[in-house]
Amino acid sequence: VDTVKTEAAKEAERDAKRKAALGQEPVNNGGTTDRYAWTQTLGDLVCEVFLPAGTRAKDLDVVVLKRSMRVALKATGKVVLEGDLEGEVHTDETVWTVEDGVLSVTLQKAGEQNWWKCVLKGDPYIDLKKVEPENSQLSDLDPDMRQTVEKMMHDQKQKALGLPTIDESKNKDMLDKFMKQHPEMDFSKCKFNWGGAEGAPVVCCAAPSGSLRFKYNPHYATTITTAQEARARRRGRDCA
Hints:
Order of helices and strands: HEEEEEEEEHHEEEEH
Distance between the termini: 85 Å
Shape: elongated
Helix content: 25-40%
Number of helices: 4
Oligomer: single chain
């Protein structure tokens, strides 16, 4: 029986180590240690440090540097928390308060927005694969990305209403201009295929004489003579 219990205890210990190696289950995208609990967003992190009973704000010496943090008692010099931070922070934006025996330190992350797996290096870490992603706001994006997202949102709305997208409207204007420049062409029997580059129309039609056919794309407008058409067909680009 004792042997069975011993093996069970060893297996439980091994299981605990395996879970620890995989990281904690995130709570509000943070975790807990025996000295503090923490939560985070992509931009900031809140670390709540457990203090000795009766500790007040004026009793503490809190030092936050770009890549390290130290909390100690002024009277005795006893260190409550100390270590290297997982990432870099903006020291001038650090805010801390003490309430109900807990020191709450808010750290503003520096550099690219990312998730931290722990607050201090060497402490238990969370499983970043289980972090809940945030809903980004347009104002948080860089100008180029914001323009791309706004265009996608506009195009989705247009498609839902059965209206042309930005690219389709732009290409239609270009095609209308091309048609006006070539009144000799008969566009009444044209075939419009909107599968061109970025939604551009690929148009096939014939001149009144029937001797000329062309394929049009705003990105590379071309006219194709009968001889050229034969060569195009051989290359697999026949517009019929």
